[in-house]
Write a structure and sequence with these properties.
With 328 residues, the protein is of the alpha/beta class. The protein has 3 domains: 46 residues, no CATH class; 210 residues, P-loop containing nucleotide triphosphate hydrolases (Rossmann fold, 3-Layer(aba) Sandwich), CATH 3.40.50.300; 50 residues, no CATH class. It contains 14 helices and 7 strands. Strands 3-2-4-1-5-6-7 form a 7-stranded parallel beta sheet, with helices on both faces. Helix 9 links the parallel strand 5 and strand 6. Helix 1 crosses helix 2, helix 2 packs across helix 3 and helix 7 runs parallel beside helix 8. It starts with a helix and ends in a 6-residue tail after the last helix. The structure holds guanosine-5'-triphosphate (GTP) and magnesium ion. Guanosine-5'-triphosphate binds next to helix 4.
């Protein structure tokens, strides 16, 4: 049984921005711990203040390097910055944390910066939910800016960046066909585009290709996504202030069009609620099915064609709907 006092105390420490409490809270979220729901209920009223920046792009495009430099721009402006690096490939989030700490050495120890990597555990809730909730937590903790870095490959990653206030898509010169291939899921969601590694050959061509693609995609909100060129690894970095300015421009555009902002936030909330319901029902049904202990046998029967999956699903769903979920 979750302890309400535990959630109260943890929520309080998170609101005081204590790093260990924040880390603890995110671990509860990652592990799908029942206490996470209690915690989020307490934190939710304090959210909605942070600027949430989603940063996505192909593996190795320079997302972490850019996140590092962008965060430094905000830190220099006396803003508190939370960073979540989503690492779907890493089986050990501990390793991923270390990796990003090494890639972001200056920031890792800064008192106004919190960095965390999230890795999937392959559990039912999924990475998108865990990441969205970790962002909520950092928002409630009072971080002014939360940057979420994801590799732009799967649907999970697209869902993650869709939940941001502004989405930055990072490409690199000479991608050619790659631009075509990421186009499907990612191109439509970019509010700002970055050509990173602009110190390499082929920048002009990539710029032209990007412009051509963006010409085709007319947005319902009327925003024309700018293209910024950066060299994240140069000293000092090139174009990162421009990137911050482009992000700020989009955020002011959205603020100046309250209907765009309201619609975006409404869609995000709607999607989140549907996900929460789906996850809750699914894990409830799943637990029941497992508790039964007969699932393995049943699957064998399906393999042997003694039973079909449709009949089984009918049976499981009907049975679950009759049994109320625990704690209700
Ligand atoms: N030449 C050049 N190299 C860069 C630039 N930005 C990043 N890199 C290098 O590109 C490599 C990948 O950079 P990361 O920042 O780790 O890229 P990432 O997109 O976060 O990579 P994953 O998270 O593994 O997908 C590193 O070796 C960086 O030093 C740049 O602007 N120019
Ligand atoms: Mg990275």
């Amino acid at each position: 049984m979750p302890d309400p006092l535990f959630a109260d105390n943890l929520a309080k420490s998170i609101r005081e921005r204590r790093p260990r409490a924040i880390a603890r809270g995110i671990s509860l979220i990652e592990n799908d711990d029942p206490a996470a729901t209690d915690l989020l209920k307490r934190l939710f009223p304090h959210t909605g203040q942070a600027k949430i920046i989603g940063l996505t792009g192909a593996p190795g495009a320079g997302k972490s390097s850019l996140t590092d430099k962008l965060a430094q721009v905000y830190v220099e402006r006396c803003q508190r910055v939370g960073i979540i690096a989503v690492d779907p490939s890493s089986p050990f989030s501990g390793g991923a944390i270390l990796g990003d700490r090494i890639r972001m050495p200056k920031l890792a120890t800064h008192p106004n910066v919190f960095i965390r990597s999230m890795a999937t555990r392959g559990n039912l809730g999924g990475l998108a939910r865990a990441t969205t909730e970790a962002v909520l937590l950092l928002d409630a903790a009072g971080y002014d800016v939360v940057i979420v870095e994801t590799v732009g490959v799967g649907q999970d990653e697209v869902d993650i960046v869709k939940a941001a206030d502004v989405t930055v898509v990072v490409v690199v010169p000479g991608m050619g066909d790659d631009i075509q291939s990421i186009k499907a899921g990612i191109m439509e969601i970019g509010d700002v585009f970055v050509i990173n590694k602009a110190d390499r050959d082929g920048v002009e061509r990539t710029q032209m290709e990007l412009e051509a693609l963006l010409e085709l995609a007319v947005r319902a909100d009327g925003w024309r996504p700018p293209i910024v060129r950066t060299v994240a690894t140069a000293t000092p970095p090139v174009g990162v202030e421009d990137l911050a300015a482009a992000i700020a421009r989009y955020l002011s555009f959205v603020t100046a069009h309250p209907e765009v902002r309201a619609e975006r936030r409404r869609r995000i909330l709607e999607r989140r609620i549907i996900e929460l319901i789906r996850d809750r029902i699914l894990s409830h049904i799943w637990q029941q099915a497992l508790r039964d202990g007969r699932l393995k046998d049943t699957i064998e029967r399906i393999q042997n064609r003694e039973l079909d999956p449709y009949t089984l699903v009918d049976y499981i769903v009907r049975k679950s709907l009759k049994e109320p979920p625990p704690g209700s």
